[in-house]
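Morning, I've got a small favour to ask if you have a moment. I owe you a coffee for this, so here goes:

…
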Amino acid sequence: MNKNLVYIVSEDWYFLSHRLALAKNAMRKGFNVFVVCKNTGKLDKIKSYGFKCYELNASRNNTSIVTSIKELINIRLIIKTIKPSIVHLVALRPIIMGLIGIILINNIKVVSSITGMGSIFLSKNLKIRFLKYFIFVFLFISFKRKKNNIIVQNKDDYNFFLKKFNINKNRIFLIRGSGVDTNYFNYVKEPSVNSIIVTFVGRLIKDKGIETLFEAFKKVKNKNIYLLIAGNIDTSNPSAITEKYINSELKKNKNITWLGEVKNIKKLWEKSHIAILPSKREGLPKSLLEAAASGRAIIATDVAGCREIAINNYNAITVKLDNVDELAAAIRYLATNHGIRKQFGIESRKLVEKDMSDEIIINKTISIYESLYKSLNTELR
């Protein structure tokens, strides 16, 4: 039985930032790794690591039936060509398209990584809410099949799928996040300067709470507190915000700087004092993992995913969802309390080292692969 392992993810940049270390380790363990994703210009970089790649013409905000059918046919042909033992689907759209694409294909074990439900959970649009119902029904039926296994990143999602979907405990795994390299993102004392740097790292979409952050920062009213925003506008996301909106907000507050895409996130956290992420919902945010590993105090919303890495009055101040006043107060409080920031930063690092490092996350996931591969061999005898 071959040890072909296929990753199906939305886009190439996501694979590089969230699954590269895992895939490299899987290859070292003897798996033949294939990557299926949309090419946004980074596919050659994935190939440079020795992975075989297949381009997927997909879009997260695509609702065209014809395009979706073409995507399904493409996935099915790729799977039939590779003949994998294990298929790892990452994020909601790849999970749905992948599960449909491999229907009636036998001798495969499937791992679906739920990385957060995002806009489909949060949208008030009637069409999206109607679509959510059918997605849940499809997932409910699909996850009942013994070949399908689930990885979730936080306790909220674990309890949701366990109780609502009534899934066998042996096929659902809680692995907290996609990991962070704690050797690269090492603990660094915050900079000794008069100004306080509050930093947001993430895609500039409504789901990340960027609008709430702008409104809250207007109420901070402290010339020594600065906000850095690192990230690109994700035009393919249904909840994307516009560059026009960002520029209009920047004009209103000279203490806010939009950096765009930042190549060296490590240095960014080293010159920052506080990490902030007022998301509406997460799987387990990579940006906060990296900030915590760097020893930074955190401000985040008390929502699924965030509360795994941001524990109120332990390493973070957590605030209610979309609460502008609470967010502004949290910024002012941490910015003016060096001792609290220092203690929170120390606890942040400990939290990551305990069970969120690359090494721990990778070992747990590889263990799942090995177990599934072994069980598949047993079934085929």
Summary: The mean pLDDT is 92.
